[in-house]
Specification:
Helix content: over 70%
Order of helices and strands: HHHHHHHHHH
Oligomer: single chain
Structural class: mainly alpha
Radius of gyration: 24 Å
Number of helices: 10
Strand content: under 5%
Number of strands: 0
Shape: extended
Largest sheet: none
Number of domains: 2
């Protein structure tokens, strides 16, 4: 009998190949053993994926530092985990758009132009979600280099790994969280207000453990992070409005806002 993966000769008593580690499959594929394989792969506590997801909450420094330092057997590697996060986020959007579209309700906006602007932003983020997720990572890594300017523990490439894990974990957790909130009928503004502070808290928690920060240092670094984030936000806003001006969306938004304000004034007079 030979291994079906690497063709190494095996004895009849072998359950795993001594060369490649592949499991020896003796039975034909049935619904029963297919379900057993699925359960073992995704729901077994010893599963690499489940261990990675749990450990990134309980001991993120062990997972991330382990990968950076070469320990890459116990936990899912950063590329696979990030790709999985993109896939799960895509499925989450598909489910939300198909079964819970009402959670993206922008009727709370005071002006129609603002509501239309928010809808366009949401549509853009959904369409290019994977690209947006990938662009966040190098941006966060640059911001971390600035915030931790006097700590040389990680180089830029290693910070990319750090934030790929953080971004993947927050994306997977937020996808599950949003689905739960959608089931109870919460709107997008409530979901957004709930997710943003949780994501910031988790990133702060990971960086505190990775850099071994004390409480005071963590507070100072967090404040510096918000200063850097504010600068980045201003630059991004200027770029965004510049693009909107060039393609005509900005003028359209202003015209819609003026029209909505005029209608509201007319209704108040009547």
């Amino acid at each position: 009998m030979n291994c079906k993966n690497c063709h190494t000769e095996l004895s009849e008593q072998d359950d795993y190949c001594k060369s490649c580690g592949g499991k020896v499959i003796r039975n034909r594929l049935t619904i029963k053993n297919l379900f057993a394989h699925f359960s073992e792969t995704f729901f077994n506590y010893d599963n690499t994926l489940l261990q990675t997801f749990i450990s990134l909450f309980t001991k993120p420094d062990v997972v991330i530092d382990g990968y950076i330092n070469g320990t890459r057997k116990k936990y899912l590697n950063v590329i696979s985990y990030f790709a999985l996060a993109i896939t799960i986020s895509g499925f989450q959007l598909l489910i939300i758009n198909k079964y819970f579209p009402e959670i993206y309700d922008f009727s709370f906006e005071s002006m129609k132009g603002q509501a239309d602007f928010q809808k366009k932003n949401m549509a853009f983020v959904q369409e290019y979600q994977s690209i947006v997720m990938m662009l966040y990572v190098p941006l966060y890594a640059i911001m971390a280099k600035i915030v931790f300017f006097n700590l040389k523990k990680y180089n830029y490439t290693e910070l990319l790994v750090v934030f790929m894990y953080i971004q993947a974990q927050t994306s997977i957790a937020s996808a599950l969280f949003i689905l739960v909130l959608a089931l109870v009928g919460l709107s997008s503004n409530i979901i957004g207000m709930a997710m943003i502070p949780l994501m910031i808290f988790y990133a702060t928690y990971c960086l505190k453990r990775l850099y071994n920060l004390n409480f005071l240092d963590m507070v100072v670094r967090t404040l510096l992070f918000f200063v850097v984030l504010g600068v980045v936000f201003v630059i991004a806003t200027i770029i965004m409005f510049g693009v909107m001006y060039l393609n005509g969306d900005l003028q359209e938004m202003f015209e819609a806002g003026k029209k909505a304000a005029a209608e509201a004034k007319k209704q108040s007079v009547n």
